[in-house]
TrEMBL record:
Keywords: Membrane, Transmembrane, Transmembrane helix. This is Uncharacterized protein. The chain crosses the membrane at residues 20-41.
Amino acid sequence: MLKPSGDVVTPDGTTVASRVHAAVLICVKTAAILGVVQALWPLKEEDYTAW
């Protein structure tokens, strides 16, 4: 949600100063999720080969 002041409010209620900060926050959260997935399911050699 975008406030009239230009601040962004995340679904959990956190106010972020700008759209740029909101984009960075989304990227960081995505990287954390992907890191957990990779840690739980290690990649195998066939995951790196071309289709």
